[in-house]
Every structure is written in structure tokens, then in C-alpha cells.
Amino acid sequence: MGLDFSVVPPFFDALLTGALWTVAITISAAVLSFFGGILFAVIALYAPWPIRYPFRLFAWLFMGTPLLLQLFLIYFGLIQIGVDLPAFVAGVIGLGLHFAVYNSDIIQAGILAVDKGQYEGARTLGLSRGQTLRKVVVPQAIRSVVPPIGNNMIALLKDSALVSVIGVTELTLSSQMAISRTFRPFEFYVAAAACYYVINLGLEAGLRRIERRIQIAR
Amino acid sequence: MTGNPIINIRHAAKSYGSLEVLKDISLQVTKGQIVAIIGPSGSGKSTLLRAINDLDPLTSGEVWLEDEQVNKPLPPRQYETHINKVRQNIGMVFQHFNLFPHLTVRENITLAPKMLKGITGAQAEELAVEQLTKVGMLDRIDYYPSQLSGGQKQRVAIARALAMKPKVMLFDEATSALDPELVEEVNLVMKQLAEEHMTMIIVTHEMGFAQDVCDRVLFMDQGVVVEEGPPDVIFKNPANERTRNFLRKHLRGRN
């Protein structure tokens, strides 16, 4: 049985829909992981210990266990305690929180690397601790960690394939469904890989634009 | 001395463990006075300056801004509110500028007034234009700090401090990090402030500037004020041996 890529075009629509779901999941989870990462970083660095220690446990849970397991827990496990989430929402929450914890580590390092003079400059003007953090320190920290956060976002795009196992018909699941009808795994996995590649190119171009824009403001 | 002091430091002392960096220093500065603090590095002059807005808290002693104690002993939360209010009246300029690199020149100047004084966007714009005109930087209003020279950065930093309309300005070696050819533009702005009778306390290594602009000069060494007086006396006829030694080293090569 040779390779025959002519089996792919009839499934263009299904693959395209899958690709759009992948993009939707990636963007939603990326936004959640970005703002969640900032929040977690501030908690990890500045919250009083009754909040900080439980948070560490939570962070450890997300860093020390497989993402796949976390998705199962959120989608299949939470129903038992009455939390019945749609698969898409469960996927976004799982991916988003998982990467928020990783982003938080990076952002913490970024915050700690902001020059002490920046705090002094802000506090001397009369800004409070919170205002200094919000307006001066965190924005600078974020700018300095855009490249590593960007790498995480690319990893997030690729890991979004995992949500296929909880039934989100994204790119990977769409191609699997096409395969189950055509028995042509090679052709469809290659087609899916090509789609991921194209989405990745778009993501990288977006990240480069952000990096260029903030270059001067550092 | 005439008039009530704007800044009144009483028996200021500070130590790190057994190392005493400030030993029982008292200093009054009245409205419109320009005081230079000179001395070798490690003499405690920057520490004293930074104690005035409680950036470096004293171990003991009091700092008063007019009739309000700056380093008032308060529970942490109340202290935070108190010090943020007090600091709005004390402008400070740093050796390394400490401009906010992620904000434009305009935003650097308007950030604190907008957040703390509740002014409108139009008033903030007016304030930025007014202060930048004063320091001759209006044409750079939309630039980012990374696009400015050191001298320009420091002029913007001065404008940023002035935008809070402080009662006193503290200068912590404002020209020490600048290339020699950029020092003059910053000195000119400071001279202009002096002519407008801004109360200023200036920690500096620029003896010429201290001599030209200041009303009083304090010579500090090893945490104490060794000698103080009008610049003519301190620079031309110092009474103390340590002052003479310091000035001899510092003025060598001048003239």
C-alpha cells in the first residue's frame, strides 16, 4: 500500500475546523496562563504565608504530575464533586493552569531581576508598594521575560493535542477521525503536522512582533 | 538661622551591627536654602540624604518635614500610608536616574501625579509640558529613556521629581554617573532651580558646583559632620585638618 495524499482533500473542512479549535484552545489557554502566571508570581513572592504555602503545594501539583493526568482529573474527576465542565473549558483550564505555573516561575525571576533603583524611584515619588509593583516592576519584568514565555506558548500549542483525549475535536482528534474512516494514518498525521507547523509559524511571527515592539521600551 | 526649618534632622544615628555609619547628626534646612554635603565615599553622606525620605531608615533619631515627623513610629500599615504621603513632598534625584524604561518621557513624568493626585489627562499633559520645558527636554517628550543620553535622562528625572511639586529636592550624586561633557547641562538645571529658591540638599563630588551654588556646605567623614559653614569658608579657609586633607585631594588638578 503506497502513499496517496489525494485522500486528504475531502477532509479539508474537518481538518480546518480542527485547526481552528486548536487555535482557539491555544489562545484561550495562553491568555489564562499569562495572567495566571503573573498572579501566581506575585502570590509566590509577596503573599503572606497562609496563602503562599498552600499555593506552593498547588504549584508543585501542576509541575510534578503529567498534564494528561491533570486533564483527566479536571474533566472526568471533577464531575464526582459536581463540577461538570464542557470538554473545551476543561481543556483550557488544564492547559492554562499548567502553563501558568511554568510562566509564574519565569515571571518571578523577571520580577527579582528588576533593578532595585526602580523600586526606589517609584517609592520616592510616593507610590505605594502595590502601585510600584503594578505600574513599574511587573510591566518591566514581563518585558524582560517575553522570549522564555514565548517558548512556553509554543510548547502549549503542541501540548494542546493532549485535549483530544478528553474529546475536544481539535486538530489531532480531527485527523484521527479521518484516519478511522480512511485507514490512512501516514497521510493524515503528516497533514496535521503541516497544519501545526503553519499555526506555529503564525505564533512565532506574533511573538517576534511583540519582542520588536518592546525592544525600545526596556 | 531664620525661619522654621523645612527639614529638621535630630540626633540621627544609623548602624549596621557594630558599624556606625551615622553618629548623632543634627541638621536644619530652612526654606530656599541650598545645602551641599561633601565628603569621602563611605562617610555616610548618601545614607544621611536617604534617611530624609526614610529610604534608608535611621536606627535612632528623628527626621521632620516641617511639622510632620517623616520617620514616625507607626504600625506597618499606617506607616505605609503615612510615608507615601510624606514622600510626595520630598523630590529625589538619583545617581543612576532610575527612570522607568518601559514608559515614555511623558509617562515617566505623569505616572505619579496621575496616580496620587487624581489629575485629569489634560492636566497631566500640561504638567509634563511645563516640567519638560523647564529642563529643556520638551522635544523628547515621546522618547523612551533608552533613546536619551545620560544628561538628558537626569534632566527628565529632575522634571519627574518636580512634577510632584515637592517642598524640598534631594540630589544623590546626580552628576557622578555622567560623562564629563554631560555634567554641565544637569548643573545648569540645578542652578536654575536654585535661582527659583527651591530648597535643595545636594550630595556631590563637584566642589566647584557646591561652591558656586550652595548657601551652606557640610563636610562629613566617618559618620559625623566634621565641619559646616558657608562655601567660602569651607573651601577657602577650612578650620579642620580632615576637611583640608579632603579638599586638597579633591581640588588637586583644578585651576
Automatic annotation (TrEMBL), chain A:
Transmembrane segments: 20-45, 57-79, 85-102
PROSITE patterns: ABC_TM1
Domain ABC transmembrane type-1: 19-207
GO MF term (any one): transmembrane transporter activity
Main location: membrane
UniProt cross-references to Gene3D superfamilies, sorted A to Z: MetI-like (1.10.3720.10)
Localization terms from the record: Cell inner membrane; Cell membrane
Record-level GO cellular component terms: ATP-binding cassette (ABC) transporter complex
Pfam families the record matches: BPD_transp_1 (PF00528)
Record-level GO BP terms: amino acid transport
Bilayer disposition of the protein: Multi-pass membrane protein
Keywords annotated in UniProt: Amino-acid transport, Cell membrane, Membrane, Transmembrane, Transmembrane helix, Transport
InterPro entries on file: AA_ABC_transptr_permease_3TM (IPR010065), ArtM/GltK/GlnP/TcyL/YhdX-like (IPR043429), MetI-like (IPR000515), MetI-like_sf (IPR035906)
Function: Part of the binding-protein-dependent transport system for glutamine; probably responsible for the translocation of the substrate across the membrane.
Family the UniProt entry places it in: Belongs to the binding-protein-dependent transport system permease family. HisMQ subfamily.
Record protein name field: Amino acid ABC transporter permease
UniProt lineage: Bacteria, Pseudomonadati, Pseudomonadota, Alphaproteobacteria, Hyphomicrobiales
From TrEMBL, chain B:
Domain ABC transporter: 7-247
Membrane topology of this protein: Peripheral membrane protein
Matches recorded under SMART domains: AAA (SM00382)
Keyword ATP-binding: yes
Transmembrane segments annotated in the record for this chain: none
CC per GO annotation: plasma membrane
SUPFAM superfamilies reported for this sequence: P-loop containing nucleoside triphosphate hydrolases (SSF52540)
InterPro entries recorded: AAA+_ATPase, ABC_ATPase_HisP-typ, ABC_transporter-like_ATP-bd, ABC_transporter-like_CS, MetN_ABC_transporter-like, P-loop_NTPase
Location(s) in or outside the cell: Cell membrane
One of the record's GO molecular function terms: ABC-type amino acid transporter activity
PROSITE patterns in UniProt: ABC_TRANSPORTER_1, ABC_TRANSPORTER_2
UniProt keyword terms in alphabetical order: Amino-acid transport, ATP-binding, Cell membrane, Membrane, Nucleotide-binding, Transport
UniProt keyword Transport, yes or no: yes
Main location: membrane
Family affiliation: Belongs to the ABC transporter superfamily.
Protein's name according to its UniProt entry: Polar amino acid ABC transporter ATP-binding protein
